[in-house]
Structures are given as structure tokens and as C-alpha cells.
Amino acid sequence: MMTEYPESEYLLLSGIQHFAFCRRQWALIHIEQLWEENLRTVEGRILHERAHDKFAVEKRGEVVISRGMPIRSREMGVSGECDVVEFHRSPDGIPIHGREGLWRVVPVEYKKGKPKADDVDILQLTAQSVCLEEMFCCEIPHGYLFYGETRHRTEVVFTQALRDKVRSLFQEMHQYYQRRHTPKARRTKACNACSLKDLCLSKLCGNVSVEKYIEEQLREQE
Fold first, then answer.
1. How many Cα atoms are found within 13 Å in the side-chain-facing hemisphere of 34?
2. How far is CA 215 from the centre of its chain?
3. Rounded Cα gap, residues 70 and 82, in angstroms
4. What phi and psi, each to the nearest 5 degrees, are found at residue 196?
5. Which of 23, 37, 55, 222 is the most buried (most CB within 10 A)?
6. CB atoms < 10 A from the CB of 9, how many?
7. pLDDT tens, 119-163?
8. In this structure, what is the dihedral angle of CA atoms 216, 204, 173, 192, given to the nearest 10 degrees?
9. Is pTM, for the whole model, over 0.85?
10. How many whole angstroms separate alpha carbon 93 and alpha carbon 87?
11. Pure H helices in the chain
């Protein structure tokens, strides 16, 4: 029997990208509620705002395009939004309320820059597909990542290995969140591009939470 999370325990789906990149970064944002914007995050936010015309639906030939679609998964205990979900008319698709015929579900995620060497973007898109599969009771074989720098779609095939990794990461995220645990800092090259590198204070506070560090600094100034 599938275990289901109550809505009060849902995590943000987009957090899987932070978690896969750095577990400490995810905890600082989602547990300690800290956030800093750098050029990369601002550019990414602008691109997403352009992609998201909330709840807008348009039809282009045999494709229906939905923007800013709310999604969720009771099994994984997550919720979020899809930049774009395309419904392609297809004889092996599923029925959609208010539309005649059968349709295949294809998620599309918009990203700034170009394809990355790691799989953080792929994992986020895979997580969206798992949510959509649960919501529409269907199988989604692939989706697309659209990159602002290359202006090109990259196809992502949702393998069982990717699905299993997504489920495993969300289970780990729930464990961290329930314990309110922020992992200690581990300095890597990726830290230089992190929007939280100044708040992380990795060289100064080690395994001490940022919140506790700031409180200690304030007390010293009293």
C-alpha cells in the first residue's frame, strides 16, 4: 500500500534542485528560511516569470499548452508548479476534461543558461513528471528542458533509475525537514556560484547553523 503524506507536510518540489546541488543550501533555504539573490537566481526568476502566465491555456494545432500548472504528489509529499505542460493529441494518450480525443502529457521546464554537467535540472523535471503521472493516472516517457542561452529544447527520457532517485531524494529531504537538521558546510568549487555563500559562512561556523551564528554575533554587539 502506498504511503501518503498529509498536505501539511508537503515540501516544495523545486527544492530538489537545491538539495541535489547541496544539502546545506537546501536546508538554509527551506528549513532556516534564508535566501539571497545573485545574478544567476535573478536571471532564472525573470525567465520563469516570462514562462508563467498563470493558468493560461492556448492551443497550437494538435497541441494544448498549459502554463503555471499546480502539481502535487501525495506519495512523495511535494507540491509545486510546472512552467509548461503540453498536451499532444495522440491515439495512445489519455482523456482530458473539456477536450475531445486523447492526449499525451509532456512537461517542459525553462532554465537560464545552457545544459549543466550535473543532473539537477533533469531531477526537477523528472519530479514534475512523477507528480503529473500520479495526477493524470498515466505514464510520461519524456519531457523537455528549455535553456535561455541556447534557445533550444533538450529531451529528457524518464528512466526508472531517474524516478527512483527522485523518490529517494524526497524521502531524505523529509527526514532532514522533520529533524530540522542543517548539514555542516563542506567547501567545494560549486560554493563560488552559490547564492548563499555569504550567509553559509562555511569557513566561520562549521556545523553551527547560520541562525545560531547570527544570534551569537548580535549578543556580542550588545
1. 20
2. 31
3. 7
4. -110, 15
5. 23
6. 12
7. 999 999 999 999 999 999 999 999 999 998 898 999 999 999 999
8. 140
9. no
10. 9
11. 15-21, 23-30, 39-51, 120-136, 160-179, 197-200, 202-205, 210-221
